[in-house]
Write a structure and sequence with these properties.
about 250 residues; alpha/beta; 6-stranded mixed β-sheet; 4-stranded antiparallel β-sheet; 9 helices
Length: about 250
């Protein structure tokens, strides 16, 4: 469902993503972890069609993001950590606008939107201007708008930013429900608890490279660290940093 093949993205001398190959199946819940500047957000922006790769390809549901952008985007939804919304619209106007972009008929749009609005407790805000809403409420509006057209692939960058514990739980429940129904979920996060609780597989990036990939148990065995995912993550990233230092010293 998601295919990244030998993906490279450079910004001048900086290699933000370095020869990344990753295949994610339909219905899989995948979590991408990594320290700051690991290349996670750059990877997501290439996948969402927001920036062009320097080399390699990204495909969504079989469609090349660069060469078949409309077909790829019809099947994908993307929510960044700080989503852009039209501030002068109300949430309900924004949801209708989004549904119309995806050519949803009025009856389906009304039904799906009302159900998602109910689950995210957005009823009190539907007639208020988005510019006056808190960050957490805006985040909920963005998530609802992304889910409206039942995307085949849902990509989220730090999805829990701004969400209170209740609505974070609502989002987790919906993502799990949708993935069980066949939607592919791709989440980039610093919150290791999300990956530990929900992910079918986890990838760890470090300085643009994918250094580890597997289930929680597979990563634990690879790292040699017992205990929670935090220990696994720290062990793998430290091992990678040490290897690079040794390689640099040997030159």
């Amino acid at each position: 469902m998601i295919e990244l093949n030998h993906l490279v993205k450079r910004f001048g001398d900086l290699v933000a993503v370095n020869d990344l190959t990753l295949h994610i199946s339909a219905g899989e819940f995948f979590a991408l972890l990594g320290p700051n500047a690991a290349g996670k957000t750059t990877t997501i922006k290439v996948l969402a069609g927001l920036i062009k790769p320097t080399a390699g390809t990204a495909r969504v549901a079989g469609f090349d993001v660069q060469h078949e952008p409309l077909e790829a985007r019809r099947r994908l939804a993307y929510v960044p950590d700080f989503p852009f919304l039209y501030d002068k619209l109300t949430p309900w106007e924004f949801l209708r606008f989004t549904g119309q972009l995806f050519r949803m008929d009025e009856a389906r749009l009304e039904r799906v939107a009302r159900e998602l609005v109910r689950r995210f407790n957005l009823e009190p805000y539907l007639a208020k201007a988005i510019e006056g809403l808190s960050h957490g409420t805006r985040q909920r509006v963005a998530i609802v708008s992304a889910l409206l057209h039942a995307p085949e692939v849902f990509v989220l960058d730090e999805p829990m930013v701004g969400l209170d514990p209740h609505h974070a739980r609502v989002l987790k429940d919906i993502l799990k429900e949708r993935s069980q129904q066949g939607m592919t979920v791709f989440v980039s996060t610093h919150q290791l608890s999300i990956a530990e609780e929900m992910a079918d597989r986890i990838g760890i990036m470090h300085e643009g490279r994918l250094i580890a990939l597997g289930t929680r148990e597979e990563l634990r065995r690879q790292s040699g660290a017992a205990g929670a995912l935090e220990q696994t993550f720290l062990a793998l990233t430290e091992q990678e940093a040490n290897l690079r230092e040794e390689h640099a010293a040997a030159k």
